[in-house]
Amino acid sequence: MTTDQLPGPQRSRLPSGLRSFWAGISAVSTKELRGRMRGRRAFVVVTIYLLLLSLFAFGVYQLLQESAAQRSQWAFDGAVPEDGFSRGFVSGPVSAEIGHALFSGIVVVQTLLILVLAPAFTSGAISMEREKQTLELLITTPLSTLGMVVGKLLSALAYVFLLVVASIPLMSIVFAFGGVGPEDLLRAYLLLFAVAFGVGAIGLFMSALVGRTQIATVLSYVIVLGLTIGTVATHTYLLATSDRDDEGNFLPVEERRQVPEALLWLNPLVADLDLICITVPTGYHFTCSYISTVTGRPYFGDSFGGPMAQPAGMAVECMPNGECFAVDPVGAGIDPAGAAADIEEDLGLGFARDLFWPRTAGAFMALGVALTLLSTQLIAPSRRLRRRQRSALRPLDEPSASAAEVQP
Amino acid sequence: MTAALRTRGLVKRYGRTLAVAGVDLEIAPGEIFGLVGPNGAGKTTTIRMLATLLPPSAGEAEICGYDIARQPDSVRRVIGYMPDTFGVYDDMRVWEYLDFFARCYGISAARRRQMVGDLLDLVDLAAKREDYVQALSRGMQQRLCLAHALVHDPQVLLLDEPASGLDPRARMELRELLRELSTLGKTIVISSHILPELEELCTAVAIIDRGRVLAAGPVEQIQARFRHGSVARARVLGDAEAIVAAQRFLAAQPEVASVEILPDGRLELALPGDEEASAVLLSRTVSNGHRVASFAPAASDLEELFLQITAIDEETAA
After folding, report:
1. Taking residues B104-121, what's their average pLDDT?
2. What pLDDT, on a 0 to 100 scale, did the predictor assign at position A328?
């Protein structure tokens, strides 16, 4: 034991601030994780979760295989291929379709899981300390409140992340079917982590704002419901009324109001639709048309091509192998290679990839950071109030006056 | 040497009520300082302000030279705080509890391991090391909470009602522990409404009522200032006759205002004089052949003093 190890106030300001920030994260998250991972409970939950997810994936697989078998039957009967392509094509992308459906299903299920679990784990983070009267013991340590809050958030999210990460091997089954690449999985996990962070921060903030865990939990879920169902309902309503004026008369096309897509940025399920649309292997998909409605940018999906935007004044035709060409609608004939290059150049008109979900991820990250900082302010009473007090500094009361005030 | 803790005109206002109405304290290093007062006197509020949990409405306080409002982080490193009511975390073992707080002070892993063992020995919880905190008895939790306040080897301990809810034995053990800490050079500020407990322990006290310090200083000094006489009880050996004889003798002495025989056979004397006069009286009584087995101030001195002082305060307030 040497004296230089002693926590001393004489240390310089910045490093000690950083150190207490780090001490906060490490102390609080170690403590929280010790409590959470103790015993069998945590591992039983992971097992049950993976079993359910596997069952779900298996169900999707069975369902799709059945419908695929039916369709290939139609193909043999000659009922479908009026488009001139061989039956080989129709049965070709079935495997990719199964991969896509599995991917879509697992992404949505995991998003829902995060929406349910993240607030549950964080909405007790601060209020439990208040209820159990342990918060004051923490505040009188030199821990930085930010470190403490971040430690709480990280440890609560660590378990959610564990569930999400544990599903990666299961998710990798989609590679066996094709149609979904590693970059698609990466996108999905980036979005899931951002959503978990943002939604976790909502629970944390509520926990710091209201004293009681139950109320904080309920409020967090109300907000989550608002973000998922509320925003879509509002958006749909605005969209439905965007082509009418106040008296209910139809407006000419150019006067129709644009519904702000920002309304849906914090809706993780809409971002899921975007992810799903990006990976659509073939043909039209409802997710693409919905994202197209939201962003106001045309997705062009014909029966064979992937989701595409249509270059202005041009038609696009896609080959079964996914290669697309711009075609002059008048038939004057333009250089297909040059037009394709144009499509690539103008991102807004080319493949409409990564159009929506990065905004959702960004919005949730920003929300998470903002709410974490706000929570810090809420649990540092002396720091917050001291500032207020300094701004309204009053002269010291006369002792006699103070004594007089005590009288009933 | 400068004071370990000093407050000047410390005020805490909640809306229109004044919880602490200008407290001035000066506590020397190594003292065991008692804050005495009835419930709602402002003891807890004062300690919470000193512990940087509540910003004072006015006035200032410094601990080991650090201002509680301007340098709360420095203050937090030199104080160990034990609140009057506190909870414990679920799902935590005793050693983990101390380890957690040691981490909060950024203490290295090697030192933590050693220190947790030392502290558990100090508060006599070494056998409970692997137990869950919530399964400990109230007294053990209280000792553990005291140990938590010591992880960073603070110079000043702020203990708010540390003995409340403890049985007499646990209370005695706590007192021993605090004495031990005092010999280690720690300044201890302890609040209580149980006066006898502080009387034996404290080197100085402040009597607080309705947010103000009515008297402060070493117990004897306060007594000398406020006491106008005292009540003593004496036990005289012998049969009823001997007791009556002693009563007559005592009643005739100039130091004694009145003497009564209590139902249990003891004598209660009203003594208007100081301790010097009591000593003279006792030696004269003994030399006159009365077999005095005990001669002591009645009840708790401090308690009586406290009642006197708060009574004076109420008279002046009315």
Report:
1. 90
2. 47
CB-based contact, B153 to chain A, within 8 Å: yes
Q: What is the pLDDT of residues B29-79, one digit of tens each?
A: 989 999 988 888 889 999 999 998 888 999 989 999 999 988 888 899 999
Domain co-membership, B145 together with B234: no
Q: Which two tokens stand for residue A16?
A: 């000690």
Find chain B residues with C-beta within 8 A of A9's C-beta: 66, 71, 73-74, 77-78
pLDDT of residue A74: 63
The CATH number of the domain holding residue B163 is 3.40.50.300
Mean pLDDT of B230-259: 85
Half-sphere exposure of B313 (CA within 13 A, CB side): 21
Clarify whether residues B157 and B273 are in a common domain.
no
Chain B, 200 to 219: residues with Cβ < 8 Å from chain A are 210-212
B154 in the same domain as B74: yes
Spatial neighbors of A238 by CB under 8 A, at least 6 apart, are A257, A259, A263
* Domain stops at, among B221, B247, B266: B221
Do A406 and B53 lie within an 8 Å CB cutoff?
no
Same domain? For B58 and B177 the reply is yes
ipTM over 0.90: no
> At B248, which CATH number?
3.30.70.100
Answer whether residue B181 is part of any domain: yes
Give the span between the Cα atoms of B269 and B255, in whole angstroms: 10
The mean pLDDT value for B207-213 works out to 87
**Do you know the residue count of chain A?**
408
Q: Which pair of structure tokens corresponds to residue A243? A: 């082509």
Residue B240 located in a structural domain: yes
Give the structural domain span for B173: 5-221
How does pLDDT run across B115-164, given as a tens digit for each residue? 999 999 988 899 999 999 989 988 888 889 999 999 999 999 999 988 88
Please indicate whether, in this complex, the C-beta atoms of B22 and A399 are within 8 angstroms of each other: yes
Asked if B21 and B38 sit in the same domain, the reply is yes
Domain regions of chain A by residue span = 16-79+91-299+357-381, 310-350
Answer whether A73 touches B (CB < 8 Å).
no
| CB pair distance less than 8 Å for A140 and B148 | no
Predicted pLDDT of residue B318: 59
Please tell me the predicted confidence (pLDDT) of residue B188: 94
Low-confidence ranges of chain A (pLDDT < 50): 1-12, 80-92, 301-315, 317-325, 327-352, 382-408
pLDDT of res. B238: 83
Same domain, residue pair B252 and B131: no
* Mean pLDDT rounded to a whole number for chain B: 85
Chain A residues touching B59 at Cβ < 8 A: 396
Write the burial class of residue B130 (CB in 10 Å: 0-12 exposed, 13-18 middle, 19+ buried): exposed
Same domain for B247 and B288, yes or no, is yes
Give how far B300 is from chain A: nearest CA, Å. 29
What residues 5-24 of chain A have any CB closer than 8 A to a CB of chain B?
A: 5-9, 16, 19-20, 23-24
pLDDT of residue B99: 92
Say yes or no for a CB contact (<8 Å) between B9 and A405.
Answer: no
* Tally of domains within chain B: 2
Is B135 found in the same domain as B59?
Answer: yes
B161-170: long-range contacts at Cβ-Cβ below 8 A with a sequence spacing of 24 or more?
A: B161/B44, B161/B84, B161/B191, B161/B192, B161/B193, B162/B82, B162/B190, B162/B192, B163/B192, B163/B194, B163/B197, B164/B84, B164/B192, B164/B194, B165/B138, B165/B139, B166/B138, B166/B139, B166/B142, B167/B139, B170/B139, B170/B142
